[in-house]
Write a structure and sequence with these properties.
Length: about 375
């Protein structure tokens, strides 16, 4: 090998080694950047995310950058160029068409310039037109247009096709989850005030999994929900190892507290319900999961909009824990949380729980406590 060729190879190798170590040094920082962007997308802040990825051509860590570029391309295809081909999985044309109407509505809502501009009327107009043009309803056009917003007729049609549906209003969005199979099991769940027996329905096969799943390509999903009327918890089976602390605490205790709170404090807002349920998690989590939960709450925290229940509850929880633990207004640096003993976080969360409980016991009709 000629000396010149060898020197060029050595130079290139040296540059690659330097880039590798530089990228590795930024691995954690870049990982956090990507997680925050995905968390923002899961909160519905697509405009913010698109602005950020427009300004961030690449990340320095080679491994994280590969994941970032794939995610970035998918975001562009779904929200900018609209070149994405949605692969429906229901095997049922009616369900696929209803799902696509909701996806189009979500995309429009997530990309709009002003949050006060509503497009719900277009969603319901499109749904009504679809049901009428395909002879899926016996209601007259006038009757359907008057009642379509209560979701009763649409739910009936979805169930007639052999599927189940959950309609929700989350983060100022009309939301819909559709699935076709589930199983049921009873659990005994210990909470601070009592022990309850709860029925959990495990959803095993989603065909539409809500706006946050759509906005993040599955990295953010509804883990489950509580239904007061049927005294039942619904669980996204794909999100949990049923033997894990994540399921036993971050799902079972979290959702069971929703159920008891919905019964005892019927006016409490979804944001305040989430705040109390997240407190319960930190009261009982061990070292196995507590630091990951703190990191997730930090990454998903946002105080801009109270109607974004999870984000606002995350912010309020971190803020109030910071006051107790650090005697500070708000500690956002995860590196300051990680050295804390688990017991210290458990006790601080316990203090917050009983503070909120005291407020609610004095007036059970309250809608807000944070």
């Amino acid at each position: 090998m000629k000396k010149r060729t060898r020197n060029i190879i050595l130079l290139i190798t040296g540059v690659l080694v330097c880039l590798f170590f530089y990228g590795n040094r930024n691995f954690e920082k870049d990982k956090e950047t990507l997680l925050i962007l995905k968390s923002k997308a899961g909160n519905g802040e697509i405009k913010y995310v698109l602005d950020q990825i427009e300004d961030t051509e690449s990340l320095s860590s080679p491994l994280i950058n590969i994941a970032y570029q794939k995610w970035k391309n998918k975001m562009y295809e779904r929200f900018i160029t609209k070149e994405e081909t949605i692969e429906n999985v229901s095997g049922n044309k009616v369900i696929d068409d209803i799902s696509n109407i909701y996806r189009e509505y979500w995309r429009t809502e997530l990309l709009k310039e002003a949050s006060e501009i509503r497009t719900d009327s277009f969603l319901y107009h499109n749904l009504a037109e679809y049901l009428l043009s395909n002879s899926l309803t016996k209601l007259s056009k006038d009757s359907l247009q008057k009642t379509i917003k209560n979701d009763v007729e649409l739910k009936k049609i979805i169930e007639k096709e052999g599927f189940k549906a959950k309609f929700m209003y989350r983060d100022r969005l009309q939301d819909l989850i559709i699935w076709d199979s589930e199983s049921s099991e009873k659990y005994e769940v210990s909470l601070p005030k009592d022990t309850i027996i709860t029925t959990v329905k495990f959803i095993q096969n989603y065909v539409l999994n809500g706006y946050d799943d759509y906005a993040t390509f599955g990295s953010s999903q509804v883990g489950g929900w509580a239904e007061k009327e049927s005294a039942t918890l619904y669980c996204n089976t794909n999100e949990y190892d049923l033997n894990s602390e994540l399921f036993k605490i971050s799902y079972l205790k979290h959702e069971s507290l929703h159920f008891t709170d919905l019964n005892e404090y019927p006016n409490l807002s979804s944001t305040d319900l989430e705040y109390r349920a997240k407190i319960i998690e930190l009261m009982f989590c061990s070292e196995a999961t507590i630091y990951d939960r703190i990191a997730q709450f930090l990454n998903g925290a946002d105080s801009e909009n109270r109607s974004h229940a999870h984000a606002y509850a995350n912010y309020s929880l971190i803020k109030n824990l910071s006051k107790i633990i650090f005697k500070s207004k708000y500690v956002s640096d995860y590196n300051e949380w990680k050295p804390l003993p688990v017991e210290k976080i458990n006790e601080a969360a316990k203090t917050l729980y009983y503070q909120s409980e005291s407020i609610l016991q004095n007036d059970k009709s309250l809608s807000e406590i944070i």
